[in-house]
Design goal:
4 strands; mainly alpha; two-stranded parallel sheet; two-stranded antiparallel ribbon
Amino acid sequence: MYTLFIKRILDFSAALMLLLLIAPVFLLITCFLAIVNHGKPFFVQKRPGKNEKIFSIIKFKTMNDRSDDRGNLLPDKDRLTIIGSFVRKTSFDELPQLINVLKGEMSFIGPRPLLIRYLPYYRENERVRHSIRPGITGLAQVSGRNLLNWNDRLALDVTYVENRSFLLDFKIVLRTIKNIITSKDIVVDPESVLMNLDDERRAEE
């Protein structure tokens, strides 16, 4: 009952309430990022959701679009703005995903939606992560976030899918709040500590 109906009702209600409560902060961050990113406060990217259906995830844009002489984007660490760094450290960059939750594309709790190009590299048991809505936070995020290796991270996604319940979601919410307050396991530049999944799996072949 919870996973089929109640979870979606709670997601929608909580997302709507939070958006109303944080509206002033949301607008302030949007204005600051619009200034530093030349009118582009949001980062929108296609990601696979439930049943691998592609949707557009929305985040605050924390990096500028600086490129080299050949037109290639500079590494993430060279494009991260000062305001963007603050937004990432506080996890405010995730706030626009409340819109994804309202639209039914995401849930508060679930496996994080990763890159489309990773789809061919999941092992068979790991594909169960796409049988439910992806989440803003999840079991892997409160268990190490980007500090986890890919095998452990994806294994935690599978564990969540197979054991999801109201009690587990409640525990994840509490741990998420604690981690945000203490800035635990937050990595401003994930590429500095973790290879891309496709690169890692190809290296294993």
